[in-house]
Model the fold of this input.
Amino acid sequence: MRRIAVVLIAVAALAGAVAYMPSASGQADGEADPVFGIKIPAGYRDWRLITVAHEEGSLNDLRAILGNDVAINAFREEKLPYPDGTIIARLAWNYEPLKESEKAFGRLQSFVAGPPKNGVQFMVKDSKKYASTGGWGFAQFDDGKPASEAMQKTCFPCHEIVKARDFVFSRYAP
Amino acid sequence: MRRIAVVLIAVAALAGAVAYMPSASGQADGEADPVFGIKIPAGYRDWRLITVAHEEGSLNDLRAILGNDVAINAFREEKLPYPDGTIIARLAWNYEPLKESEKAFGRLQSFVAGPPKNGVQFMVKDSKKYASTGGWGFAQFDDGKPASEAMQKTCFPCHEIVKARDFVFSRYAP
Done:
C-alpha cells in the first residue's frame, strides 16, 4: 500500500508540473530552411520582448525582437557568448502612420505596426552544429515557407559586423 | 493509510502545479498613482507583446505595448469591450540610430531602442471602479514613481478619440 502511495504521489507531482509547462518549449514545425536546417520554432509569437527597432529604406518596417527563455536570460545577464539553445526571433510589420495621432497630438506623429512584412527571421545558437558561422544558424521564413538559399546565405556576412557582440545586433531594452 | 496517501497525492499535485505558475500573476508593488490608485503590476516586463510604435515629435521614442494574459487573449480574439482584468503596458526608449547599420546596409537606416524614457504607462480595465473613464484606469510612472496628478488626468481625454475601439489605440501585431 505504501509503495503504491509513493508512486502515485510522484506521478501526481509530475503531472501537476507538466500540466503547467510553458508552451514555448514545443517542437518546431513545418519546412526547414535549406542552409541551416532550421524550422519555425513553435510558439515564438509568445516569447518575451528583447527590443524594438525601425528600419527605413526599402524595408520600411517596425520590428520586434523576441527571445526564448534561454535568450531572455542571456540578454539580462549580459554574458557573452550566448549559450547553446538561445533562439532570437525578428518579427516585422509595415511602418504606417496612426491617423488618430493628429487629433491626439495636434500633428501626425505616431507610427504603428501595419500588416506583417519582410518575413520572420530566427537566429539559433548551436556552437557545434553551426561552428562555421560563429555558432549561429540563421533562417528567414516568408508566409511560413523558408526564404531562398541565396537569401539565407546573406545573413552571416552581415552579422559578422558585430562579431564582438557574439554576432547579435540587438541590445536588451529594459 | 489510504487517507493520508490521498491527501499527500493532492498536495503533491498542487505543489507541482504551483511551482510552475507564471510569475506574471504576482501582486502589484510600490506607490499608487493619485488619480486611479494603480500600482506598477509585478512582472510586467515579462508580459507578451501586443504591438510596437514610433513617436516622433518631442516624445522621440520607440515603444512597445505589452499585455497581461487577459489582454493578449482579448486582442487575439478581437472581442470588444476588453474584459475586466485587462492590463496594457506602454514601455518606451529613446529613438537612436544604429551606427552599424551604415556598414550593414550601405546607409544608416536602422533606429533602435536606447535608454528608457517617457516613463511606463498602464491601462487597467475595471468597468465598475473606473466607470467614469470608460471602464479604464490610467497611470504613468517615471523611475518607479507615479507621475503628477495633472499628468494622469490627461490620459482619458485623449483616449476618448478611440472610444469606438474601447479607448485603446493599439492594434494587435500578429
Q: What stands out?
A: Confidence is low (pLDDT under 50) at residues 16-25 of chain B. Chain B touches chain A through 56 residues (CB under 8 Å). The longest strand of chain B covers residues 87-97.
